[in-house]
């Protein structure tokens, strides 16, 4: 009842309503949600931006996705689960989720420099998860993510079938940006006859990253992934 | 009542009791806990080892620690919180937590190859968190971690004051193992006059890892951390 009164006699009535329209529920404490949408470029005080909520939401979203995949794929090993989770929580997927959910219009940021904020949308998405978690608790957040995010916006089967191929993505990027890529592979035979591959990735002949694995392909992907998160994402 | 009957008339009565002695509560479903302590070296079937629980527990522990630090340090920024979390969840800290909690005696593994399992204890710790979470839910797990792990076994202030210095740890390791370390630093001046450092770490003149940052010290730590997790942890 108090919540009802607050909601309808508050100067923030419009904000309550827009959260309801966006997420399907009324918040208890709107301060969390207001903060979730406040990019640091418009925060007036320290700790008044969404950065701390983003840190929290990232961890909570990771745990909920981990559990969801654990249940959805009872016969898959932890390598598969870990890889699926990385695909779902990577920055470019979060940016796209944020847009699909329509968070764009809610985010407050300083316009002039917006083009420099590559992760503006994904960060706000994570901060919003942090806000829901603090406002409503873990179980509510888990239900919300499953019913309002995964079911509506994530095609899990698509992710199962798509290898997130960092090397190909990086090659596409390099072609577009007219950069030259080179993968250098060193192979080492270990005592037990396993072979270890060290792949070093150069962009325009500058060494960028290294991947090490018993499989050459995985070592390449590892090196490509590191470069991808630095340059493309 | 059913739980009580199961507990006292079950062939697993001793296991129920040992979980109670170890953790302070009786499990609802002991299957989760039995699996949590089963290293893959003794698992007879696929998915019968603790690896999937470890994947889940890692994510759940991460979220609970993230929230704990968020509340404990209301005026710290997300950089501080992220760094603190890394210190608490890194493999060597989890190995040590696992020993402090006395999980050693519970873990089942194939003895002959035990010296090769550097993360046996930390993995079982994470798997146990996954088991508690599946058995008892998030809120119970959160209370357990705060009251039975953090309060008893983690000196948070110690972690605040201790920089986790991977370079020093690696230098210590190298001296002990008689390995030769070399850090190669390349400096690049960017368009906006920022300087970017690329530090490449060699062990016995073999290139191992790379760190890139605007601070030379951070780039070194990054390279050292990658090597640390490969060789030392």
Tally of individual domains of chain A: 2
Strand content of chain A: 5-15%
Lateral arrangement of strands in the main beta sheet of chain A: 1-2-3
Could you estimate the helical fraction of the residues of chain A in percent? 55-70%
Number of helices of chain A: 11
- CATH fold assignment of the largest domain in chain A: Ribonuclease iii, N-terminal Endonuclease Domain, Chain A
Q: What is the name of the CATH class of the largest domain in chain A?
A: Mainly Alpha
Can you count the beta strands of chain A? Answer: 3
Oligomeric state of the chains? Answer: homodimer
What does this 3D model show about the protein?
The structure is a homodimer of 233-residue chains. The first copy, chain A, has 11 helices and 3 strands. By secondary structure, chain A is mainly alpha-helical. Chain A folds into 2 domains: 12-161, Orthogonal Bundle (Ribonuclease iii, N-terminal Endonuclease Domain, Chain A); 166-231, Double Stranded RNA Binding Domain (2-Layer Sandwich). The first copy, chain A, has a 3-stranded antiparallel β-sheet with strand order 1-2-3. In chain A, strand 2 and strand 3 form a beta hairpin. In chain A, helix 4 runs antiparallel to helix 5, helix 6 crosses helix 7 (120-136) and helix 7 (120-136) crosses helix 8. Chain A is elongated and about 70 Å long.
């Amino acid at each position: 009842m108090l919540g009802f009164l607050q909601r309808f006699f508050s100067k923030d009535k419009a904000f309550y309503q827009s959260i309801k329209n966006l997420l399907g529920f009324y918040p208890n404490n709107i301060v969390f949600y207001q903060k979730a949408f406040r990019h640091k470029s418009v925060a007036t005080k320290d700790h008044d931006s969404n950065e701390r909520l983003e840190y929290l939401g990232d961890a909570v979203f990771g745990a909920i996705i981990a559990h969801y995949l654990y249940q959805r794929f009872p016969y898959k090993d932890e390598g598969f689960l870990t890889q699926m989770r990385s695909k779902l929580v990577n920055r470019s997927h979060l940016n796209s989720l944020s847009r699909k959910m329509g968070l764009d219009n809610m985010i407050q940021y300083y316009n002039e420099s917006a083009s420099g904020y590559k992760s503006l949308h994904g960060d706000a998405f994570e901060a919003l998860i942090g806000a829901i978690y603090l406002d409503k608790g873990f179980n509510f957040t888990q239900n919300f993510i499953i019913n309002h995010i995964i079911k509506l916006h994530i095609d899990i089967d698509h992710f199962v079938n798509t290898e997130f191929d960092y090397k190909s993505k990086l090659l596409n990027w390099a072609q577009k940006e007219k950069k030259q890529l080179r993968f250098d592979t060193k192979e080492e035979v270990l005592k037990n006859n396993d072979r270890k591959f060290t792949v070093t990735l150069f962009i325009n002949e500058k060494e960028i990253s290294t991947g090490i694995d018993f499989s050459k392909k995985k070592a390449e992907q590892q090196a490509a992934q590191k470069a991808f998160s630095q340059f493309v994402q």
